[in-house]
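Please, structure for the following, as C-alpha cells.
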Amino acid sequence: MGEEKKILEITAARALNPRSLRLEFSNGDVRLFDSHRLRGPAFIPLMNEDIFTKPVVKDGALGWEDLDITCSAKYIYDRSIHYDDNAVAKEYVKTRRDIIGERIAIVLFPIMAIAGIIGTVWWYINN
C-alpha cells in the first residue's frame, strides 16, 4: 500500500521587515520569502508596507488582511529560501529574469515617456 502524500501548508507567517516574511510550513521547514518574487498587477497593493507586514494564513495558504490575495504554500515554498533564526537573513539575490526585466524597463520607460509627450502634443495641436 502506498504512503499517503502530505499536502504542504503554511502554518505561520510573520513579517521580518517591509519586504520579507518568515514562514513556517507543515513539513517543518522555516523559510524566508522576499516580496520581490511576487509579480503582476494583483500584488501592487503589497508594495504598501502597512499591508505587506500583516500576513495571515488562510487554509494553509498565505494571504493578507483586507485583500483578496492568496498564494498557495507550494508557490511560496518554491520561491523562498531556507531560513535559520540564528543566522543573519540573506540579502535578496536577483535572478537572471529579474536582471533582464530591469534592463528592458530601463530602455522602455524613457521611450514610453517620450511617446506619451509626443502623443499629448499631437492631441493638443489637432484639437
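The chain has two domains: 10-92, 94-127. The helical segments are 49-52, 73-78, 96-126.
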